[in-house]
Write a structure and sequence with these properties.
heterotrimer; A alpha/beta; B mainly alpha; C alpha/beta; A: alpha/beta; 8-stranded mixed sheet; B: mainly alpha; MetI-like fold; elongated; cell membrane (chain A); ATP binding (chain A); ATP-binding (chain A)
Chain lengths: ~350, ~280, ~325
């Protein structure tokens, strides 16, 4: 399934130095710090991290959905245009028509007093010139596409009539209504059971192949990432600490945090029957010390780590193209074989 | 997001309405507690040399038809009006919350009966019912308190009942049960403290309404009785002179409005304060 | 009875629990019958002392209802729960309090399961003093001991739950359960609200506590990875019934029920990038108000036969110590 990419296609979405900050205490502090990413056409990029790592904020920043108190700096280039600088009209056209979003909790993201059909229709009305009959046809087609049986009848149903999995399918249908090229998925399967999650993941893979979607998939589950993401970026304390092809990142991680995450999963237990938990807690964004944010919890941290801020970059000696890590001791990790 | 939320919370918790409301209410409480410190004259002293004087240097708020200083009377009346605000609501608050807590916690036939009684009380227009009870018992402040307690408990009871039913669903209530605690301990030590926020907020609004109601009833002659200085009574005193001596009614009116406004602001501020705190 | 003659710590037999579904006014006036949703339907289990039994299944399978029945937060409609041979359903007053002391629960949501208006110290010492385990004067010392046991700093006692992270709150919940010095812990989805790295810390804590205090545990979870790691035996539930039960490793390496197989196949694994495949299971969970006849799994089962549609497969033991509720399980005589 690994896609051949000898001539790397150009990125459709590029984040450069994306930073989100909040006012607080003395001045502002950053909750997303200098995130740079490229997403290519037809690619699923996993954005992985624990709660508070800034992964959802990054996603919302791309869509300009952050509350006013949060300041966004850097650039989000979508097909050559900076989304962060776009005016209200352009933004409205982009949202829904070119990029759309799938949320974690479909029950709260769907409007409970409008039928599913109406909600799809609304999006079509706003972004297309289709007439009523054509919009209806399109809506039926969409429910078919996401695998909701007897679509014609289900259009008239309200969200509460749908089960969790069906609701998530309905939300995906709404997100796809106007043929967006970019889908931002914010933990879309976290609230679902594993068997339903499996169905939704398969659906996303199929839609990506059929429609050529580009997807950023935010999750905390490395298993899910392994299943569907072509590339993966690991976030910690607002920064990307490692990025590369999913298979590479998960099998030969070059950041101690990624290694720690993989090791702390049950199934990778140490000899004494205990899990290798990462000690301590992630830092509070307001109380961030200089140097590497992970250093206080890192077994490998040296004196330099609490002074120098590591920069995300290719690791000297790594044979895998596109594999980057933000760790001062990444080269030592290669020497150790990069085993998780 | 938790850290972000924590910071936003610390910043936004104490809102401007809370500060202003608490300030106004505090000023009136201090004035009501120590009227002698603030009043320039004896509120009941007649001065036949200064009848119906317009506001001026000697009498900043003017004088009434007996030459009494309006400012002093408004200040002394604060004592009574704050008393009205508290006593008109506190009995309803106590009875209503305890009953509501029991209803919400136990449910069943007891709850069904209380709920029907509430339905019956709610059907009647509030003010008509109050006036009817006072008319039956006879005018006066004490009977006004009785009437308000008899009617107003339903609001607190309904509010508390709903809130307890909500809290009962939460896991800490289940945990208390699993830990082997007895019902009354679970209810009054665990659930009720967590259910008090909306009650306290509603109480502020209710006190503001009680001040207005007390003044209305005073004006109608059903509440405080002349010559006791009460803002409603003062306004009633001035009603015959409204064209010649506007200051007799206007200043007590302003006093009612500020206290009512202060209590409302305090209530709104508390919603924000508790709301932000609880969302953690 | 176990071979040694001792009754098991907890034995559940034929437990059933139904919840009445609210009818609207119009439905009542129209004389519609009272509808019921079956949450548990003939569940039988046993837990031996010192053992960890995992109960796995997806939402709506009844695993949390079972946990709540075990601590008498719900009372069962049918069947029995026995603690060391004593029927829990018949316990009243002091006897019930004694049972609750021995069988404690840790809750799923670390946020709502702690009283937000009590400090950690108050929460813990209340549990100690009310149950008469220590006099009030000795409670603070015991609180410090408990906090140390769950690796929280001593000054945690004076702080409120909101000052702690999810993982720390879950430690407080564990300390509160341990305050009663129980012999058995019912853990209801206690990891599902936590981050992966924090989950690992809590799992390690549970393991070390179990070793030090000799606790038995019923571990309710939907996370197959954790269950496989943590439990000695596992019971797989589907729509209120146990469909398979046995030694954890054996069940995971050779699942005998088609549902268990589908569940294992659906769980995403690191390093298992399968690409696009057919989902292990199609369709959605049937409504618990209207369970399918026969085997409840048959509408989603790829192997279902005519027999499955009409007859309920009972949970039967095999010689390997495994119990399976499937007509097609090996060893069953085909009819």
């Amino acid at each position: 399934m690994e896609r051949e990419r000898h001539e790397t296609p150009p990125a459709v979405l590029s984040l450069r130095d994306l930073t989100v900050s909040l006012p607080g205490g003395a001045g502002r502090f950053d909750i997303v710090r200098g995130v740079s990413l490229d997403l290519r056409r037809g690619e699923i990029l996993g954005l992985v991290g624990e709660s508070g790592s800034g992964k959802s904020l990054t996603l919302k920043a791309i869509m300009r959905l952050l509350p006013g108190a949060m300041q966004t700096r850097g650039s989000v280039i979508w097909k050559g245009q900076d989304v962060l600088a776009a005016d209200a009209g352009t933004l409205r056209r982009l949202r829904g028509a070119e990029m759309s979003m799938i949320f974690q909790e479909p029950m709260t993201a769907l409007n409970p007093v409008l039928s599913i059909g109406r909600q799809i229709d609304e999006s079509l009305k706003a972004h297309t010139a289709l007439d009523r009959r054509a919009r209806h046809r399109r809506a039926v087609e969409l429910l078919d596409l996401v695998g909701i049986p007897s679509a014609e009848r289900r259009l008239r149903d309200y969200p509460f009539r749908f089960s969790g999995g069906m609701r998530q399918r309905a939300m995906i249908a709404i997100a796809l209504a106007c043929d967006p090229q970019l889908v931002l998925a914010d933990e879309p399967t976290t609230a679902l059971d594993v068997t339903i999650q499996d169905q939704i993941l398969q659906l996303l893979l199929r839609l990506r192949d059929e429609l050529g979607l580009s997807v950023i998939f935010v999750t905390h589950d490395l298993g899910v990432v392994s299943e569907i993401c072509d590339r993966t970026a690991i976030m910690y304390a607002g920064e990307i600490v490692e990025t590369g092809a999913t298979r590479t990142v998960l099998s030969a991680p070059l950041h101690p945090y990624t290694q720690g995450l993989l090791r702390s999963m049950p199934g990778a237990a140490s000899a004494d029957g205990r899990l290798n938990a990462i000690p301590g807690q992630p830092p509070q964004p307001a109380a961030r010390a200089p140097g590497c944010a992970f250093a206080p919890r890192c077994a490998m941290a040296g004196p330099a780590c609490s002074v120098t801020d590591p920069v995300l970059g290719p690791v000297l000696g790594s044979v895998r193209a596109g594999h980057a890590s933000a760790c001062l001791r990444a080269t030592d990790l290669i020497a150790e074989g990069g085993q998780p | 997001m938790s850290a972000v939320a924590a910071i936003a919370r610390r910043r936004g918790r104490i809102s401007l309405p809370l500060l202003i409301g608490a300030g106004i209410v505090l000023i009136w409480i201090v004035v009501g507690l120590f009227p002698g410190l603030f009043a320039p004259y004896d509120p009941d002293a007649f001065d036949y040399d200064a009848l119906l004087q317009a506001p001026g240097l000697a009498h900043p708020f003017g004088t009434d038809s007996f030459g009494r200083d309006i400012l002093s009377r408004v200040i002394w009346a604060a004592r009574l009006d704050i008393q009205i605000a508290v006593f008109s609501t506190i009995f309803a608050l106590g009875f209503g919350t305890v009953l509501g807590a029991l209803c919400g916690f136990y449910g069943g036939w007891f709850d069904a009966i209380v709920s029907r009684v509430i339905d019956v009380v709610v059907i009647f227009p509030f003010l008509v019912l109050i006036i009817a009870i006072i008319a039956f018992l006879g005018p006066g402040l004490f009977n006004m308190y009785v009437a308000l307690a008899a009617i107003n408990w339903v609001s607190y009871c309904k509010l508390m009942r709903g809130e307890i039913r909500l809290q009962k669903q939460l896991d800490y209530a289940a945990a208390a049960q699993v830990l082997g605690y007895r019902d009354l301990r679970i209810l009054f030590r665990h659930l009720v403290p967590n259910a008090m926020t909306p009650i306290v907020v509603f109480w502020m609004t209710d006190m503001a309404l009680a001040v207005l109601l007390g003044s209305s009833l005073g004006y109608l002659g059903l509440g405080a009785q002349p010559p006791e200085a009460e803002w409603g009574v003062l306004i009633a005193d001035g009603k015959n002179y409204i064209e010649t001596a506007w200051w007799m009614s206007v200043w007590p009116g302003v006093a009612i409005i500020t206290l009512g406004f202060g209590l409302s602001l305090l209530g709104d501020g508390l919603v924000v304060y508790f709301g932000k705190k609880e969302r953690s | 009875m176990t071979p040694t003659g001792h009754p098991p710590l907890i034995e559940v037999h034929g437990l059933a629990k139904r919840f009445a579904v609210e009818r609207g006014l119009i439905e009542r006036l129209a004389g519609r019958p009272r509808r019921q949703a079956a949450a548990l339907d003939g569940v039988s289990l046993r837990l031996e002392a010192g053992e960890t039994l995992a109960i796995v299944g997806e939402s709506g399978c009844g695993k949390s209802t079972l946990a709540r029945c075990l601590v008498r937060l719900h009372s069962a409609d049918e069947g029995s729960i026995a603690y060391l041979g004593h029927d829990v359903g018949l316990m009243r007053g002091e006897e019930l309090r004694d049972y609750r002391r021995h069988v404690q629960m840790i809750f799923q949501d670390p946020y709502s399961s702690l009283n937000p208006r009590m400090t950690v110290g108050q929460t813990l010492s209340e549990a100690i003093v009310v149950n008469g385990l220590r006099p009030r004067a000795e409670a603070p010392a015991r609180v410090a001991e408990l906090l140390d046991l769950v690796n929280l700093p001593p000054d945690a006692a004076t702080r409120y739950p909101r000052e702690f992270s999810g993982g720390q709150r879950q430690r407080i919940g564990i300390a509160r359960a341990l305050a009663l010095e129980p012999s058995c812990i019912i853990a209801d989805e206690i990891l599902s609200a936590l981050d992966v790295s924090v989950q690992a810390q809590i799992i390690n804590l549970l393991i070390s506590l179990q070793k030090r205090l000799g606790l038995s545990m019923i571990f309710v979870s939907h996370d197959l990875r954790v269950v496989r790691f943590l439990s000695h035996r596992v019971a797989v539930m589907y729509l209120g019934r146990v469909v398979e039960e046995g030694e954890t490793e054996a069940v995971f390496s050779a699942p005998a029920h088609p549902y268990t197989r589908a569940l294992l196949a659906a769980a995403p694994e690191v390093g298992l990038s399968r690409g696009r495949h057919d989902s292990a299971m199609t369709g959605e969970l049937p409504s618990p108000m209207n369970l399918p006849p026969g085997c409840v799994f048959h509408p989603r089962c790829p192997l279902a036969t005519g027999l499955c549609r009409t007859e309920v497969p009972w949970l039967l033991g095999t010689e390997t110590g495994r119990s399976v509720a499937c007509h097609l399980a090996p060893g069953r005589a085909p009819r």
